[in-house]
Design goal:
The chain is of the alpha/beta class. The protein has 13 helices and 17 strands. The chain starts with 5 loop residues before the first strand and ends in a 5-residue tail after the last strand.
């Protein structure tokens, strides 16, 4: 392969199993870097038999020899970060020594969370089904150039005029549009100065750290949050998150060059799930959906909401693969399909008229999926850790996915723990 750095990111609507894979690959890495999203993510790892769910910390955090980087494209909630550190510290000694955060990160503020919640509750706005963590409003501030970045909280004289401008913008909305109480300036300012004090020891030149590791020929993992179909530009807009979770977001969000990402591993489930609102052409509407959700434990790792389930949609995956230079797939949760009589893969959408809207705009409301059917298997995939032991029909299913998506499957995951992983590409 030759590529040293790897990106691990989701190609569906999130929750593909990225956290497990980043933790698994961290053994051979010197750093892992989150580059977008915030604590809307919920990445599950099994470490020493214990299930950990990470929201902001990179999934390398339990590896003492790897740095865990949070790049400038991440929106950081200081409160969420420190409660996560406290929760994870007993299982990952010395987090504070290897966690480095970019001071250029936008800070999630109390007013972002309030606006997210008010908009989702209001009848005047489309309900997106957000995680209610203030992610969208924080990214809005960044693009509108009124965000409070971590660096701003390090000096009161720098913070004051910026916060005055931004808070007055929000308080005008709270008072005149939403009809709720305004936020107190001094309280919000003091809170921000506290954020600055707490975060100061963790701040680092993340971009420079990546440059240094690259010069030393050390491997960096770039860890995506959410999935390409939730990407603000490439996903099912407006039912998306507010960042670029596809590979395009790596360079800007981590602070490196696009060519620093040598290999892009697209993580896909053997079926699809979605949390929140928005179209999902292959959604299953009968008891089978409940069966898959139950077997796959399809409950949101962040919000506890049930995940909608559907058949593997190769049309969207192929499009994302082709337009994002995806090198290979990591196919997860194939064990969840164990024992099913037949398994569908969507390989086309029938309406020609909908194709332009699909291809360029990811408008999936009106498409009608057409499927191929693969025979199921009776021997289990669950826990299998060598390709030879994969049941023949499951091998045919995997080959079909490679064929319709146009890239090889380089990793197969057959369970939540590291032992249930098959590395098809030894260079990883
Ligand atoms: P992420 O957001 O992409 O990191 O994924 P989540 O952690 O939100 O959801 C994936 C869920 O599936 C977690 O509960 C994982 O422990 C679990 N998981 C990951 N890979 C596999 C697998 O191959 N088989 C099974 N059965 N579970 C898996
Ligand atoms: P990981 O990294 C699945 C979804 C929300 C909602 C939409 C917008 O664990 O895969 P937001 O709060 O981001 O403004 O919500 O995006 N969403 C996710 N769905 N996995 C995630 O993260 C998600 N992060 C956000 O459910 O539909
Ligand atoms: Mg998740």
């Amino acid at each position: 392969m030759g590529a040293k750095n790897l990106a691990v990111l989701g190609l569906q609507w999130g929750d593909e199993g990225k956290g497990k894979i980043v933790n698994f690959l961290s053994d051979k890495a010197h750093a892992a870097c989150r580059y977008q999203g915030g604590h809307n993510a919920g990445h599950t790892l099994i470490v020493n038999g214990k299930k950990l769910v990470l929201h902001l910390l990179p999934s390398s955090i339990c590896h003492k020899n790897a740095s865990s980087l949070i790049g400038k494209g991440v929106v950081v909630s200081c409160d969420a970060l420190f409660s996560e550190i406290e929760e994870i510290e007993p299982f990952a000694d010395g987090i504070l020594d290897r966690l480095k955060i970019s001071p250029a990160c936008t800070l999630i503020q109390p007013y972002h969370i309030l606006v997210d919640q008010l908009k989702e509750k209001s009848n005047s706005f489309t309900t997106i089904g957000t995680t209610l963590r203030g992610i969208g409003p924080a990214y809005e501030d960044k693009v509108a150039r009124r965000a409070i970045r971590i660096v701003d909280t390090l000096s009161e004289s720098k913070l004051t005029p910026k916060l005055e401008e931004t808070l007055s913008y929000y308080n005008f909305q709270f008072k005149n549009y939403f009809g709720v109480d305004e936020l107190d300036f001094n309280e919000t300012k003091d809170r921000n100065l506290e954020y600055g004090e707490k975060l100061k020891p963790l701040l680092a030149d993340v971009s420079g750290t990546i440059l240094k590791l690259n010069n030393e020929n050390k491997r960096i993992l770039f860890e995506g949050a959410q999935g390409a179909l939730l990407d603000v530009d490439q996903g099912t807009y407006p039912f998306v998150t507010s960042s670029n979770c596809s590979p395009a977001g790596i360079a800007s969000g981590a602070g490196c060059g696009p060519l620093d990402v040598g290999y892009i591993l697209g993580v896909v489930k053997a079926y699809v799930t979605r949390v929140g609102e928005g179209p999902m052409p292959t959604e299953i509407h009968d008891d089978l959906s409940v069966e898959i959700a139950t077997k796959g434990g399809e409950v949101g790792a962040t919000t506890g909401r049930p995940r909608r389930c559907g058949w593997f949609d190769a049309v969207t995956v192929k499009r994302i693969v082709q337009s994002n230079s995806v090198s290979a797939l990591c196919l997860t949760k194939i064990d969840v399909l164990d024992g099913m009589e037949s398994i569908k893969i969507c390989t086309d959408y029938n309406q020609d008229a909908a194709k332009l809207a699909f291809a360029e705009c990811m408008e999936l409301d009106d498409v009608e999926p057409s499927y191929i059917e693969c025979a199921g298997w009776t021997e289990p995939c669950a826990g299998v850790n060598s390709y030879e032991e994969i049941p023949e029909n499951a091998k045919i299913f995997i080959k079909k996915i490679e064929e319709v998506c146009g890239v090889p499957v380089d990793i197969i995951s057959t369970g939540p723990d590291d032992a249930s992983t098959i590395l098809m590409n030894p260079d990883l």
